[in-house]
Amino acid sequence: MKTPTWLAKYATIPLLSAILLLGAGFVWWFNDGLIEDIFTISCVTLTMVMGFQMFMGNSGILSWSYVGYVGIGAFASAICSMSPQTKRLQIPVMYEFLIDIEMPFPLAVAVGALVAAAVAAAIAWPLMRLSDAAGIITQFALLIVINVILLQWQQVTNGPRTFTLGGMRSTTLWTATLVAVGAIVLAFLFKESSLGLRLRASRDDRFAASAAGINVVAVRYRSYVISAAVGGVAGALWSHYMLSITAKSFYLVELFTILTMLVIGGTMSVSGAFFGWLLITLARQGLRQLELGLTQQGFEAYGITEIVLGVLMILFLVWRPTGITKGRELTFAALAALWSRITPHARQRPTAPAQATSTDQEAP
Amino acid sequence: MSLTVIVEFIVNTLSLGSLYALLSLGLVFVFGIMQLVNFAYGEYIMISAYVLYALGVFTDLPWPVVFVAAIAAGAVMGFGSEVIAFRPFRGRSLDALLVTSFALSVILQDTVQLSISPRSKAPPFPGFFNRNVTLFGIVTPLRSYLMIATTAVLLIGLSLLMRRTVLGIAMRGASENFTTARLMGVPANLVISAAFVISGLLSGIVAIFWTARSGAVEPLMGSAPLLIGFIAVVIGGMHSLVGAVVGGFAYAAIANVLSLTLPTTLLSFRDAFMFVIVILFLVLRPEGLIRGSYAEERVG
Fold first, then answer.
1. Residues in chain A closer than 8 A to B106 (CB atoms)
2. How far apart are CA A305 and CA A292, in angstroms?
C-alpha cells in the first residue's frame, strides 16, 4: 500500500503525539502521585525543548538566551495569575499596577508567551546579524543580562528571594501533556513552513541563502521571536507547576539539561528533540535514584547525573554529532526500516527504498 | 581627600586591570588559534585554586613550591583538556567544540563538587601577601602591587615569546591563518598545545591572585573570572593579544567607574550593565578597541 505524500511527511506529528498521549494515559491510569509529578514536569521540559529546537535546530545558532525567555514567561504569567491579596502578602515591594492584575490561568500563560516574545522582539534584531564567536558571546551575554535583571528586580520578581505563587497547581497532567503535544505540532509545522525552510537554508549556508534572496537576518529574527514565545509558554507552565520559583532556575543548569537533550537526540529534527528528551529524562531519573541511593549509603553523590550526561554529550558530539536521529524524522517508512532491522526474518528484504524516505528530504 | 580618591581609583584599576588582562589573555590565546570560546577556562582557574588549597593545607611545602604547583596544574588542565576533549573536534564544527567546552566545564565543576565538597574552603597564603602597605598616601594590600609587577613581567615575557621565538612567530602565523601557517610547515599540534599550555599557565597565575582577593575556593568559582574574561575580550578585541590586555584594563576601569557612580539601587544590576556594554560592542564595533586581523563572518 502506498501512503500519500503528505501523510508520509507529516506522520511525525501523530506518531510523536501518540507516544506522548499513550504515556500520559498510562500515567493517568496508574494513578501514582510521584509518577504523575515526574511526567507532568517532563512534559513542561518537552515544551521547552521544542521551543529550543525551533530556533537552535533550524538556525544552527546556539541560543543561550533561550532559558532567559523561559524565565521571563514564568515570572510574567505568575504575576498575572496571582490574586492581588497574595501578591501584597508575598511581595510587598511589588509595583502597584502589577499587584492589581489578575486573570485566569490560560490567559496568564498567553501573557507569559507574549511578554517573552515582546522582549525578544525588542532586543533581538541587531543580535541576529552576528554569527560564530561574536554571536555566541552575545547570546551568552544576553542570558546573563536577563538573569541579572530577573534576579535583582525586587519590585517584579521578588529579587533573589523565592517567588511563591500560592494556591493550587494549575499545570496538571493533561494541561502539560496537551501543551507539549501542541509544541510538537508547532515545532514540526514551523520546520516545514516557508519560514522554517528559509531558516534551515541559512543554517546550511548563510551566504548561499542570502544569494538566493533570503533575508537571513529577518528570517532569524522572526524565528527567534516565535521560539521565545514557546519558551514563555514553557516557563508559564513551569511556574504554575512549581508554585515557587527563583531566577536561579532559569540559568546554565537548565540550559545544560535541554542542550544535552537536543544534542543527544539530534538538533536538526523535531523527532531528535523528542527522543533526546525521552532518553535524557529516563536517564536522569535513573541517575537521580542512583545518587539518592548512594547518598543514603553515606556517599555524597550529588553531581553524578551532570557528570554522566556531560560525558555522554561529548561522546555523542565526537562519534555521532548529528545525534541518535541523524536529523531524520520519525515516519512510517522509518519505522518500517527499523522494524526490518530488528526482526531477523525480514533481513533479506530490500530496505533501500524505505531508508530513502526516512531521511530529512521530501518523500518521493 | 579627592586626590586620595583619585590615587585609590588608579591603583585599584591598575591592579584589578592587571588581573583581568591576564585572564583575557588566557582566553584569547586559545581563541586566536582555535576560534574556540573556551567555557572550561574558568574551571582551569578553579582547579589551580584547589591545588593551592590542598597543598597549602595538607602539606608543609614552602609557598613558592605551592604557587608553582598551582600554576603547573593550570597548564596541565589546559594541555589535558585539549588532548582529551578538544582534539577529536579538530577541523569539525565550531558549535560542537563550543558545546564540548561547556560540557567539560559542567563535568569539572560537578567532579570537584562530588569529590571534594560543594562548600567553600579557605586556602592559606603567605603573610606578606595580604599585608597592608601605605604607598602614595593610600592603604592597599601588598598583593595589589605584586599583581601589577607580575603582570608587567609576564607581558614583557609573552611579547618577547611572541616576537622573538620561532614558536611565537608560528603561533602568530597560525592565528592569522591556520591553514596557510600549516602549509608553511607549522605543526598544528604544537601550536595548539602551546596555546592551551600558555592559557593554562595564565589561569594558574590568575587563580593565585583571584583566591588571594576572595579568600576562598569553591567548585563554582570559575564562572566569575570567565565572565569577566568574556567582557574584557570583547571590549578589547577578540583577535589580538594587545586587545585582550587593553580590554582587561578597560573592564577594570568601567567596573570601578560604575561602582562609584551608579546609585545603590542600581548597583546590583552592575553585571547587567557590563553585559549590555558587551552586546553594544559586538553589535556596533565587533572588532573591539584594538583591531586585530578581523575576519569575523557576519551577515546583514
1. 252, 256, 306-307, 310
2. 11
A315 assigned to some structural domain: no
Q: Domain range for residue B166? A: 2-221
CA distances from A150 to A47, A76, A95, A245 (A): 22, 11, 15, 11
Domain that holds residue A89: 32-250
C-alpha B71/C-alpha B83 separation (Å) is 19
Count how many domains chain A has.
1
pLDDT for position A221: 93
Q: For B14-23, B188-197, B277-286, which range has the lowest pLDDT when averaged over its residues?
A: B277-286
Q: What are phi and psi of A169, to 5 degrees?
A: -70, 120
Q: Which long-range contacts (CB under 8 A, 24 or more apart) does A36-40 make?
A: A36/A173, A38/A285, A39/A173, A39/A176, A39/A177, A40/A171, A40/A172, A40/A173, A40/A176, A40/A177, A40/A241
Q: Per the CB < 8 Å rule, is A310 touching B269?
A: no
Q: Is B132 exposed, middle or buried (0-12, 13-18, 19+ CB in 10 A)?
A: exposed
Tell me how many domains chain B contains.
1
Is residue B280 in some structural domain?
A: no
B96/A317 touch (CB, cutoff 8 Å), yes or no: yes
CB atoms within 10 A of CB B171: 25
Q: Which residue has the cell 600558555?
A: B198
Express each pLDDT in B52-97 by its tens digit: 898 888 888 888 888 999 999 999 999 999 988 888 887 777 778 8
Rg (CA), chain B: 19
Q: Do B282 and A130 touch (CB under 8 A)?
A: yes
Nearest by CB: B271 against A126, A140, A144: A144
Q: Average pLDDT of B34-63?
A: 88
- A278 within a domain of the structure (yes/no): no
In residues, how long is chain B?
300
Euclidean distance between CA atoms A222 and B80, whole angstroms:
42
In a domain, B255, yes or no: no
Contact check, Cβ <8 Å, B282/A133: no
Q: Is residue B167 part of a domain?
A: yes
A193: in domain: yes
| Within-domain flag for A298 | no
- The answer to whether the CB atoms of B114 and A304 lie below 8 A apart is yes
Smallest Cβ distance to B275: which of A129, A141, A263? A141
Give me the count of residues in chain A: 364
Residue B37 lies in a domain: yes
Phi, psi of B133 (to 5 degrees): -120, 150
| pTM as predicted | 0.85
By the CB < 8 Å criterion, does A144 face chain B?
yes
Cβ-nearest to B269 among A149, A206, A307: A149
**What's the pLDDT score for residue B275?**
78
Helix (H) or strand (E) holding B254: helix B241-261
Instruction: Look at residue B283 and tell me whether its pLDDT is greater than 80.
Output: no
**Interface ipTM:** 0.80
Q: Are B211 and B27 in contact (CB under 8 A)?
A: no
H-state helical runs in chain A: 5-10, 12-30, 33-52, 58-59, 66-81, 84-90, 96-99, 105-127, 132-152, 154-157, 173-192, 194-204, 206-211, 216-242, 252-265, 270-296, 304-319, 332-342, 352-357
d(CA A11, CA A7): 5
Interchain pair A132, B297: CB under 8 A: yes
Using only C-alpha atoms, what is the Rg of chain A?
21
